Amino acid sequence: MRPRLFALAALIAAAPGAAQIPINGAGNAGGGRSAAMQRWLGRADDRPDRVHSRQRSAELGGQIRQLRDRIDDLRESGQISRAEARSMRRETRRAALYHTLYGGNGLSDSEAAELQSRIYVAGSLVRPSRLPTGR
Length: 135
Hints:
mainly alpha; 5 helices; elongated
């Protein structure tokens, strides 16, 4: 019985990953994975400039959604034609595309300014051209 127990203990001790298993979360393997996962999720560090960048990106994304909703409301009420709605949506899609392209790594000040100007241009186009119809 004892020879089997010693053979089992020797087999466990000789396992290739045995030396790499952290005990109670200690060691490089436990902390390294956590930090890498946090970086991958974009939450590695909450520096003020990154938090501000995420908030600014969320605000600009909200403005784009408001533009889309406004276009839909104007079209449903009959205040703009189908062709006008199409051109307004095209400009809004351009702003949304730049928001997606710039927002991957967080917005810099210049990217946020350019995106804000694109949203302003798209928003200036979103206005009624006639009175609402009584549908």
